[in-house]
Amino acid sequence: MHMANYTAADIKALRERTGAGMMDVKKALDEANGDADKAMEIIRVKGLKGATKREGRSAAEGLVAAKVVDGTVGVMVEINCETDFVAKSDKFIALADKVLETAVASGAADAESLLATDVEGKSLADYVTEEAATLGEKVVVRRVARIEGATVDAYLHKTSKDLPAQVGVLLAVDGSGEAATTVAHDVAVHTAAMAPTYLSRDEVPAETVENERRVADETARAEGKPEAALTKIVEGRLTGYFKEVALLDQSFAKDAKKSVGKVLEEAGVNATAFARFRVGA
């Protein structure tokens, strides 16, 4: 019987390098007589052939990566793959870093222009496809956010200690210095936890507000509330809605007696922009 000229440690190392499945790694090592680099190449070629098969598969795992340049420009990307096994592999994390680095350097503000950016003589889209081939999974560069301000904070949150960050936030305020830096970070952490949709109530589209008002009115009538009290009840419910969806109206996570807007005001700054990504959401 022919003895395999590689060890369990070789298999593990190649799985970590490629993120490929156990059987695929074993087959490639057999074919390459235990030569790890050759096996890597085999996995890659096989992976590229399988790329079309992966098109229809769903990629809902992955990570969020972010970087702040000079304290004033924040860039964040979400990259998806199919399994959390790949999401935590060194190779996928390195690919995400490369995508983030490209986003920072290119100034791209959306995924489409980011994917068209040149990386080592090819488009980032092609670069990602080739890397995905060795990973053996569909990889999607899903979205990118770029915000600028006097002070920008990036906060990444791990929902599981075994996985890379699943939630990321960029938050900009219009002041600089220690108080501004501290409050920007506190509000970024709050934003990660409380998931606002809009920065302020003014940003909520008029038709959304109208719809909320109509629902509140119909609900109050259905509950048999007196006509005279309706206006007040509806306004109260709208306020409640704003407290849910608008960052500045939310109760501050660290001190529920104050709104986020109030906390920023006390620090002498305004929040000017934010972005929040949650993997797959």
TrEMBL record:
Keywords tagged on the record: Cytoplasm, Elongation factor, Protein biosynthesis
Described purpose of this protein according to its UniProt entry: Associates with the EF-Tu.GDP complex and induces the exchange of GDP to GTP. It remains bound to the aminoacyl-tRNA.EF-Tu.GTP complex up to the GTP hydrolysis stage on the ribosome.
PROSITE patterns per UniProt: EF_TS_1, EF_TS_2
Transmembrane segments: none
Protein name per Swiss-Prot or TrEMBL: Elongation factor Ts
Cellular compartment(s): Cytoplasm
Region (Involved in Mg(2+) ion dislocation from EF-Tu): 83-86
A molecular function (GO) term: translation elongation factor activity
Similarity section: Belongs to the EF-Ts family.
InterPro entries hit by this protein: EF-Ts_dimer_sf, Transl_elong_EFTs/EF1B, Transl_elong_EFTs/EF1B_dimer, Transl_elong_Ts_CS, UBA-like_sf
Recorded name of the encoding gene: tsf
Residue ranges annotated for the Translation elongation factor EFTs/EF1B dimerisation domain, each copy included: 74-280
Keyword field contains Chaperone: no
